[in-house]
């Protein structure tokens, strides 16, 4: 028996400049030979391995970017051949619904999918499942790479699509995206149980879910999940019908017409939303394929659940880097934008999580974060303008991975204090986009009680004052779930939120 991971199917994109790892299943002790050949059938690389516990791994030396290759794998009398293989850049795109948001549902998406053509941008959608069963097995067997062309790409992550299209234009090589995400998931879903339990916060997530699901059998869960899926599918169908009839309608009109989203996934032993529920079924089967890096957009689910999101996210980065055998793999992620649900009170949980995300960037090497503070929408958790998300991620990658000049959000780099004033320095000149006074800035004295601050801009410097604050010791910006952003750098990107 020779079964190759679908990562190495027809149209695959392999990672350039890194050791290539080809893997799959074979009979115990079987010798497996792998060859990479170019379009003229010249041998580019060859390697062998022996199957152990039913799995094999063959290592090939790093390769330059190229197209039109063949990957030939042999074991005994069995031969597998993948055609139209490229060597280029490969990113794993992970997270929850804003990374999952498909191109067909994004701004520009319906028009683009009718006409776009780029055979050097390819993607592979990892099956979404929290349990290894027959359905999961069949989905993995049928998994294949797809190249961007008319009628294809509708189900690709919109953010990853815009990232890949821009990166491909910039680099001129093939770009492959491995879509690996599920809406509504916690960061804790994407680590295995043993690893998650290594941190106190991860152990707390596990214990709380165990209490919540205690006594629920697999059959109980399946029935509750069936009802949940039915209700959710019916709601999504109503949304699609409404959007088709009234594409320009507001979010408020949509909510009034179709009702609230019936989002209440049941707890149980096979739930993909349980802590450690997705690592074994969606991440582990991809490892240890060679990657250029990770793209990650997640955090909405955890905003009200933890004050230690940075601990969980750093643990995830370590786990994923270890699984893919590269302790320095670039990890590019999205900071949460503004958002609040209609009628809800400002919980201040989103700004707190944004700062935890920034701490991850500041504390872990080879991590980068894009600011989307200006891209949030009132009462809409899923803004449809995903071009901005993808292209800002691409700008980050161009500077961080490829050493190119790239535009990023301005950040505070220092401060000084004098009587009645705090002066903040940023890494580029600032401006207000609307011409008004800078908004969402606050100051506090020794008592820590923040009040609204006035600011004067002098190039890359902000001078902050506030009534009643004689000796300012603390400053913060955008400390709200949702607010109007007007502070930008000269490059048009929003000032990154901060607390000092």
SSE blueprint:
Layout: E1 2-4, E2 13-15, E3 20-26, E4 31-37, E5 43-50, E6 55-60, E7 66-75, E8 78-95, H1 97-100, H2 109-115, E9 118-125, H3 134-141, E10 146-148, H4 158-171, E11 175-181, H5 193-196, H6 200-213, H7 218-245, H8 251-258, H9 279-283, E12 293-297, H10 309-323, E13 331-334, H11 349-363, E14 367-370, H12 386-400, E15 412-418, E16 421-426, E17 430-432, E18 441-444, E19 451-452, E20 454-458, E21 461-465, E22 474-477, E23 487-489, E24 498-499
Parallel strand pairs: 2-8, 8-11, 8-12, 9-11, 12-13, 13-14
Antiparallel strand pairs: 1-3, 3-6, 4-5, 4-7, 7-8, 9-10, 15-16, 16-21, 17-23, 18-19, 18-22, 20-21, 22-24
Helix pairs in contact: 4-12, 10-11
What do you see in this structure?
The chain has helices at 97-100, 109-115, 134-141, 158-171, 193-196, 200-213, 218-245, 251-258, 279-283, 309-323, 349-363, 386-400; strands spanning 2-4, 13-15, 20-26, 31-37, 43-50, 55-60, 66-75, 78-95, 118-125, 146-148, 175-181, 293-297, 331-334, 367-370, 412-418, 421-426, 430-432, 441-444, 451-452, 454-458, 461-465, 474-477, 487-489, 498-499. With 500 residues, the chain is α+β, with helices and mostly antiparallel strands. It has a domain at 412-499. The radius of gyration is 24 Å and the shape is globular. The mean pLDDT is 96.
Q: How many beta strands in the DSSP annotation?
A: 24
Spans with pLDDT under 50 lasting ≥5 residues? none
Determine Rg (CA atoms, Å). 24 Å
Q: Roughly what percent helix?
A: 25-40%
């Amino acid at each position: 028996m020779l079964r190759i991971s679908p990562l190495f199917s027809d149209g695959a994109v392999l990672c350039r400049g890194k050791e290539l790892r080809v893997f799959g299943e074979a009979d115990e002790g079987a010798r497996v030979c792998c060859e990479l050949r170019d379009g003229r059938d010249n041998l580019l690389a060859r390697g062998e391995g022996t199957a152990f516990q039913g799995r094999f791994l063959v290592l090939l030396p790093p390769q330059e970017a190229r197209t039109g290759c063949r990957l030939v794998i042999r074991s005994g009398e069995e031969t597998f051949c993948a055609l139209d293989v490229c060597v280029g850049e490969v990113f794993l795109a992970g997270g929850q619904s804003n990374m999952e948001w498909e191109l067909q549902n994004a701004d520009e998406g319906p028009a683009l999918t009718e006409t776009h053509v780029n055979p050097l941008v390819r993607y592979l959608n990892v099956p979404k499942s929290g349990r290894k069963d027959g359905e999961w097995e069949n989905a993995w067997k049928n998994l294949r790479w797809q190249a961007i062309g008319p009628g294809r790409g509708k189900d690709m992550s919109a953010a990853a699509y815009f990232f890949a299209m821009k990166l491909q234009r910039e680099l001129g090589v093939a770009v492959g995206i491995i879509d690996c995400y599920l809406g509504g998931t916690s960061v804790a879903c994407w680590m295995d149980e043993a690893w998650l339990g290594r941190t106190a916060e991860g152990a707390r997530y596990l214990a709380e879910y165990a209490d919540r699901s205690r006594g629920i059998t697999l059959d109980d869960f399946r029935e509750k999940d069936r009802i949940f899926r039915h209700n959710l599918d019916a709601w999504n169908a109503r949304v699609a019908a409404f959007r088709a009839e009234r594409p320009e309608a507001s979010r408020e009109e949509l909510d009034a017409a179709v009702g609230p989203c019936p989002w209440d996934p049941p707890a149980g032993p096979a739930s993909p939303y349980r802590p450690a529920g997705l690592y074994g079924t969606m991440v582990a089967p991809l490892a240890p394929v060679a990657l250029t890096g990770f793209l990650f957009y997640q955090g909405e689910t955890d905003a009200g659940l933890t004050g230690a999101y940075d601990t969980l996210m750093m643990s995830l980065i370590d786990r994923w880097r270890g699984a893919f055998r590269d302790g320095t793999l670039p990890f590019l992620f999205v900071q949460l934008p503004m958002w609040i649900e209609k009628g809800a009170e400002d919980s201040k949980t989103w700004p707190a999580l944004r700062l935890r995300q920034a701490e991850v960037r500041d504390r872990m090497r080879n991590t980068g974060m894009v600011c989307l503070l200006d891209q949030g929408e009132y009462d809409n958790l899923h803004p449809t303008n995903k071009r901005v998300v993808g292209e800002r991620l691409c700008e980050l990658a161009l500077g961080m991975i490829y050493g190119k000049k790239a535009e990023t959000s301005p950040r505070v780099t220092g401060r000084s204090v004098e009587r009645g004033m705090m002066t903040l320095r940023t890494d580029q000149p600032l401006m207000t986009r609307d011409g008004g006074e800078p908004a969402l800035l606050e100051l506090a004295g020794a008592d820590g009680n923040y009040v609204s601050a006035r600011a004067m801009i002098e190039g890359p410097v902000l001078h902050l004052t506030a009534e009643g604050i004689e000796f300012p010791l603390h400053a913060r910006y955008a400390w709200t779930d949702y607010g109007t952003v007007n502070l930008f750098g000269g490059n048009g990107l929003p000032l990154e939120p901060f607390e000092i």
